[in-house]
Structures are given as C-alpha cells and as structure tokens.
Amino acid sequence: MTATQFRTCPLCEATCGLSITMNGDRIQSVRGDDDDVFSHGFICPKGTAVKHLQEDPDRLRAPLIRDGETLREANWEEAFAAVERGLGAVIERGGKDAVALYAGNPSVHSLSATVMLPMLIRALGSKNFYSAASVDQIPKHVSCGLMFGDPLLIPVPDLDRTDYLLVLGANPWISNGSLATAPDFRGRLEAIGRRGGKVVVIDPRRTETATGADEHLFIKPGTDAFLVLALAHTLFDEGRVDLGDLEDHVTGLADIERIVEPFTPEAVAARTGIAPDDIRRIAREFSDAPSASIYDRVGVHQHTFGTLTSWASDVVNAITGNLDRAGGRMFPLAAHAQPDPEEPRGRGWSTGRFSSRVKGYPEAFGQLPVATLADEIEEPGDGQVRALVTIAGNPVLSTPNGRRVAAALSSLDFMVAVDPYVNETTRLADVILPPPPLLSRHHYDFAFYQLSIRNVANYSPPLQTFDGPDEWEILARLALVMSGGSAAADPHLVPAMGLQYLIDRAVRPGGPLEGHDPGAVATALEGREPVEQILDLRLRSGPYGDRFGDVPDGLSLAVLEANPHGVDLGPLTPRLPNALRTVSGKVELAPEMIAADIPRLLADLERPADDMVLIGRRQLRSNNSWMHNVPAMVRGSNRCTLVMNPADAARLALSEGAGARIVSRVGEVVAAVEVSDEMMPGVASLPHGWGHDLPGVRLSVAGANAGVSANDLTDDALIDPLSGNAALNALPVTITPAEISGNGHAPGSSSSGSPSKVVDASA
C-alpha cells in the first residue's frame, strides 16, 4: 500500500521540502513538495539521492571493530565495550586532553547530533575540539561575534526584497546557498532582475552564478579584503556614508574612516585585478540602490584574510544603511531561538580562551583550528592527542594536507567514528558506530533556521525503523564513557541532564518561562524521545512559542507535527539594537582585534602575485564527498578536472584532457586538464571532496570514480590567524605536464595513507 510522506531534505542548507512516496517500508519515489511553505516544490538533483543513501548497500548496518589489520562486524554491546576500553585507557594515561573530538559537516544536518554534541563536548572536557567550521565559515562567526557580541548572530541577505546583490566568493546556483538558507537560490536571484534590480558577481572563475548575473568581474584569489575596503574608502571619499536607522546604534565609524584611508581604488587595483573605475562604480551603484547587500561566502572565507573580508563586507552593509533593513542584510529569528531582550545587553565576545599546545593557535568559537590537529597528534609531550572521536567527519579528504592527516590518524592509540560508511578517514578507526540512515531520524534544522532568509519551521519524524540505537543514544553512550562512566549505563541520563539545564535557564528571572514551575514544564514534555523533548522545549519557549499555555496559539512541536509542509513565520524584521550582545549595546564597527590585523593586510598589498594559484569548485551533483557513492551523482564525464585559462594552458604546454602535475609545498597530485576561459589567467580550479581510491575504503561507486583530493595539496601552515580557518583557496602551486593514470595519480605516486594503523609519515 502506497502513502506519501513529507520531509525536509537533510543534504544541504536549503532545507527544501520533499514529497516521498512509500510502498510499505520501501521508498518508491522522491520529488519536491509543492506545498512546502518555503521551497514550494523546488528540489535539486541531490534531493533525489535520499532514496539511494537510505538503501545504499555500502552503508553500514552494524558496528565494526578492528581485529588486527581488518574491520569486522560486531554487535552494539561488543562495540561499546571496545570504546570504553580504548578511550578509557587513553584518558587514564594522558588525561582528557589526550582525546580529540572532530565534528564533520553532516553533523549540523542531524537533529540528534546538533542537540547532543554540546553535551559530548562538556562530558569530554578536552580543549581538543575541532570541526569542519574551521575549513569553512568560522571567519563569519568571528567577525559577527566581535561586531555584534554573538558569533551566531549572523545577518543574511534579504534576497526576496533586495535591489542590488554583490556576491563575493559564492556560487549559490550550484551550492544552493550557504550561511543563507534559501531554497531555489537561483530563482530568487533571477527574481531580483525581474523586479529591476542587479546582481554582480566578483569571482576568479566565471561560475554558473556569474554567468546568470547581470555583471561578472574577475578578481585575484585572496584579495577580496582589499576590494571591499576600497569600496568603503570610496563611500567615505564621496560622502556616501549613511547609517540610516542604525545611526544611534553604531560605534567606531571614525575608526573605520581612518582604517580604510590607505585602501584607495588605485592602491588595490593591481593587487585585485579590478580597475579603479569599476571599484568606484560598484560603490556608487551599491549606495544608490534602494536596498543592497554584500553576500560573502566560502571562496573569501577560505584564505588568510577570511575574517577581515567577512568583517569588511558587513561594514559596507552597515555604512550604507543596509544592515538590519529590508532588502539588506538582516538577522533571522528562528523558532527555537531565545527571544530578544527588551534592550541590548551582553558581555561581548572574543577568541583565545585557550590555545593549541604545539603552535599556540587561539581558540575561536569554542574550537581549535583543524589545520593543527596533525601537530597535536604527532608532537610528543604532555597533552599529546592519542585518541580521536569523529562525528560524521572525513578530515582525510576535507582538511589541509590530507596525506599528513592520514598518517597522523594511523598512529593514534585509539579512534572511534560515528559514521555510516568506511570512508577515507573511518577506515583508520578501531570502532565504527553507524547511526540510523537519513529517513530513520528525527529532523529539524537547528543550524539553518538561524540563517534562513525567511522565518520558517518544519519538523520531520522518522519514516522508517532502524535495527539499532538512535543517534542520540550512540552519542549519549559516548558521553558516558568520556565522562568516566560506563557505556552500559542508561543513556537517557545524558539528555535528561541537558533538558533540565535548559528548563532551569528558561524559568529563571528574565527567562522566557519566568514564573513557570520547572517540574510542570518537565512533565508537559514527557512521552517523547529525548531530542524531541529538547526541541519541544526550545520551540515552546522561543519567540513564537506557546509558553506552555501563556500564548494559546503559539508554536510547539505538536503544531509542527500537524503541519507537515511547515509553518511560515513571516519575512525577516529588524532586530537591532535589542539583539546585540556587545558590552556597549551597539554595533562595534571597528573591533580592536580586527583593527590590530590591518597592518598585516597592508603589508600584503605590496606582495608580488604568485604565478599560479589554486581554488576549489562546487558542483551541483556533489556535496563535499557525501554524494560520490550515489550512481546518479557521479554519472557522466569526469568532474574531478583541473580547469585553467587557455593562455595558462598554452604557456605551460598543457592541452584539453592531458595530465597536469599540481605541486604545492605539502604534496602533489595529477589531474586531467580542462581548458576554459571561465577561469581568470593565473588561476586553476580543482574540486573538493574527491580522492576515493585509498586502501580500505568501502565505497564501491565512489571508488570507481575516485578522482584526486585537492586537500593533498592544501597547506596546513596557511591559516587565517584571526579565526584559525584553513586557507583552502589562493594556494600557490606549480603546474607542469604529466602522464595521467587511471586513478588520477602520477605513475608511481602514492595516495593519502594506508588502512594500516602504522603508516610512514611520508606516505
């Protein structure tokens, strides 16, 4: 018997609604949900991959534990007993800091992982927490934390009302958006033109988004901060600064004028590759538009000036009156968020509460840069990392100097992975604990509704059963072990403590449930799974919540369950100054930490350009390495190619389809050349997330379409010092002709490590 179920797609940030036809317990078809309040039927090719990911024969159905050089299937009790022995021994010898925790990108797409990860971090008590954020968006968290007092208070472009959108380092036609949750991003950009607005893309590659934009300008990778500060310089120079409604809620404007003074359009033109007249014209168009927004993303965050670029972009939004106003950059108010206080208040925010042991990198957003994880594993001494727990992560492919990372992981005393696959990283684990597949999980987008261009909420219950523990239970049992307890203890203890903490905060004076009895609140949440209880509490005490009877028509989990197509909570509305958490209660335009980094940027202004630099590339049928084991997502011609400008190809004696050896300070790979004038001269592009031909990997489809890993080239010594983010773009490389083999490596070259637990560091 067939039935249609509705669910939010968990595969990227767009949160599109899916209409899934089930035949009993089998998926018959997947299409877009026409009645979804946000996506209105839009779906990208990744959405249809949900069926294969649910049914993938390579997906683990039971835990694996290491038996010598092999991983064998085990039952859950045997697996957790091995975890307790392995982690317990490392903690006993080296203390809590001897264990590191890494959370990969997919963890933020999981309700259980999002809810449980903070509890896991607290239970472990190690400073060695790392995540995919430090190869992605952490510059935005740092700049927003310094400017607004909260690293999660991130303004997003109000796409549906803007008149002028300036896109830096983003390709949302392909990525579907990032740090801006917006189903059908392409359609929303096209709508800007239909209502008489303009979209300008500045990128070293003429991306799919740039092709569809009104204007595209090439820029030399890594120089975006110069461009944005030159825009700000022009605004001051021509008397175009206008804070609008923010005038009484901003501090540091005079400091900004002083900071941008050296960054004239003429001074930055050679370094950026953009003519002074174009810089001035864009500044004028931006300030003249009825509303405008700079949308900066991963291409400008993944270099050594990522935080400065992120900060400068929001400075330009602010000084043109486009911060916290319709059509500019606005602050979402998620259904599960804390309501804004009656007046701005806060303790401010900073980085550097602690530092990494080996290189002294400061903590940012509660974590250390993953670029230094290998240092912490390899360097002997007190606090040396000897065990690792990964949650939905694949750092061998996704973090800098992947070959070194693989060698470091293989030297650990113990490693446990929560992951559905034996991938390039988990093949090195001692225990793999597979979570339920996608459609067997509860789903609510905690992270992405905080970044949504419209306030909406949707909840998806599990559609299929899973013969094993829920993901929250797996993580809870890990937390019990990390805190010194037994993996056999009741896992409900962990989320129960987390729930009680949240209740106590909500009912305290000034809290959203002030005056409520905490016991009555707890009783009202009974009868649900632990993560559902926490979600329900967050919804009911949130800005639209029913406050446990105080607001009869308010939001709750029951309301979301009764509305499977979602609940529309309306367009974004101004939230400043009340949402601010700075000490001053104002937008801090020129934070001291930012101002202190400007001399480093000025020194780089005169640096000669590298002969060739490498950047990444997003692809519609790929979501990092997630999609490469789905046949439909890798069908067609080879997509792991090195794209370069015809002039560069001719200069370097390379031709279409020929092999090219790409060499960086840390490694080399060989890839097939694709010649295209979409690339700026002096820039080559290799996509991220490939390199699936490593020994021990159990991904049959991905292995047959292996490609090479761009992160065998990226340099773990290159980071943005303000945030610790890895510089995966603007990487200096040397490119020469090479013979290409079937696996994309030069004949005789080695790949990133071995399945053995002992690997030579040079491998």
Please, could you describe this protein's structure?
By secondary structure, this protein is α/β, with parallel strands linked by helices. Among the domains are: 2-55, ADC-like domains (N-terminal domain of TfIIb, Single Sheet); 158-336, Dimethylsulfoxide Reductase, domain 2, CATH 3.40.228.10; 498-555, no CATH class; 609-738, Barwin-like endoglucanases. It contains 26 helices and 27 strands. Helix 2 runs parallel beside helix 17 and helix 4 (138-148) packs across helix 13. The longest helix is centred in the N-terminal third of the chain and has 19 residues, at 76-94.
**Can you tell me the CATH superfamily of the domain at 158-336?**
Dimethylsulfoxide Reductase, domain 2
CATH class of the domain at 158-336: Alpha Beta
Examine the coordinates and then state which fold CATH places here, giving the name of the CATH topology of the domain at 158-336: Dimethylsulfoxide Reductase, domain 2
| Low-pLDDT runs | 743-752, 754-763
Q: Determine the N-to-C terminus distance.
A: 54 Å
CATH architecture call of the domain at 158-336:
3-Layer(aba) Sandwich
Proportion in helices: 25-40%
Class derived from helix and strand content: alpha/beta
Number of helical segments with 4 or more residues: 26
How many strand units? 27
Sheet of most strands:
7 strands, mixed
- Name the beta content range: 5-15%
Mean pLDDT reading:
94
Tell me the strand order in the biggest sheet. 5-4-17-16-15-6-7
